[in-house]
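STRUCTURE:
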């Protein structure tokens, strides 16, 4: 299933954010991968917006980077589905 432009924009923005945090620490992708216990190629895919991360992997990145990503994913009431 193809991603919508809005979905791709989310992945691109998150990847850029991860890259920014990594570079602020002067870490290579290999170093981040080691700290997060993920592969370097997976980190590269995240940074390029190619990977749709599982929440477990978002948590691994947050722990490795010592960042709280909770505020990164805003949820607007108008976007919520009502049952």
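SEQUENCE:
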């Amino acid at each position: 299933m193809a991603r919508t432009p809005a979905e791709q924009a989310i992945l691109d923005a998150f990847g850029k954010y991860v890259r920014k945090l990594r570079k602020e620490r002067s870490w290579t992708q290999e170093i981040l991968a080691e700290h997060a216990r993920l592969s370097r190629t997976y980190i590269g895919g995240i940074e390029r917006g190619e990977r749709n991360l599982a929440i477990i992997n978002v948590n691994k990145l947050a722990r490795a980077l010592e960042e709280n990503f909770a505020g990164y994913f805003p949820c607007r009431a108008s976007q919520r589905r009502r049952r």
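REMARK: The mean pLDDT is 88.
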